[in-house]
Amino acid sequence: MNRSLGLLTGIVVTALFLLLIGCEDENTSVKSPNQLEEEVSSEKEPTSDDTIKIGFSMDTLEEERWAKDKELFREELEALGAEVEIMVANEDAALQISQVETLISNGVDLLVVVPYYTETAAAIVEKAHLAGIKVLSYDRIIKNANIDLYVSFDNEMVGQLQAEAMTNLVPKGKYVYIGGAITDNNAILVKKGVFNILQPYIDRGDITVVYDQWTEDWNPDNAYKNMLAALEANNNQIDAVIAANDATAGGVIRALKEKGLEGKIPVAGQDADLAAAQRIVEGTQTLTIYKPIRALAKEAAERAVQLASGEDVEADRVINNGKIEVPSVLLSPIIVNQNNIDETIIEDGFHSREEVYHP
Known about the structure:
Blueprint: H1 2-27, H2 33-42, E1 53-58, H3 64-79, E2 83-88, H4 93-105, E3 110-113, H5 122-130, E4 134-138, E5 149-153, H6 155-169, E6 173-178, H7 185-204, E7 207-213, H8 220-233, E8 240-243, H9 246-258, E9 267-268, H10 274-282, E10 288-290, H11 293-308, E11 317-320, E12 325-331, E13 334-336, H12 342-346, H13 353-357
Parallel strand pairs: 1-2, 1-3, 3-4, 4-5, 5-12, 6-7, 6-8, 8-9
Antiparallel strand pairs: 10-13, 11-12
Helix pairs in contact: 3-11, 4-5, 6-7, 8-9
């Protein structure tokens, strides 16, 4: 009796087990590990994000204008619905390359670069292209590299405007040229523009460039030292000074002040820094070259989003960077002096009237 009951119980259990297996087979089948992994993956929430992310690698924020570029470029990109991650290399070429590697690993869709040293920044472009990321060179061109687009001002025109204004004021005499950093291709272009205008005067013997020196790292202290050396070498007999930017012009004017020559020798700069605008109003700096940075930031932001989206980008000219003819967009700079300071940098909101006239 007990044996029969045990046998019956076994049959029932077996039948129930087979029934359960049958029901399960109707809904599932045995899956391989790969199939299970795919199933788990398909159950995850969608993570795709169509927001374009731009990496902005900057050389420095030491000079006033670069802080403006940083914020204006961010504003313009965000207005277009894009995100931006900004890293600043503090004038360190190796650090800039390392930061670019970080931006690439963070998944940026496009890289925008203000190179510290334009000659060695080609490595940045190569790394980006290997990751399938295009590169827009902002304000300074990257040399000897296959960059995808260059957006800047016409830097030769900057130098030409400086020299044209100064030769109108001082058509004959001793000139000093205080250049920018030789590591910056823009400094080379500005100098080229200056000497394109000065050369006929030099050839005629009307103008003599008695001192011509680069300024390491665009440092105003180095410009100050250079100007002191120029004054000492010429017994303070200088008729005009062209400085590569307003920071170096500030160093020049500091040296002139020490010699009692502040406001007596015309000085040209560029960038329309606030201190330079104040000096123009005071009469200690003759002129600056204004480059509307918002226009540059807007142009670069629009082109960056287009490139990142895979759109064709139109360029109005090409610039040879030593390797290729780079598609380029060059904006026009504007000369600023006491006569038009209100109608240019103040009217544009680049600086307020209160800042310029009531420091």
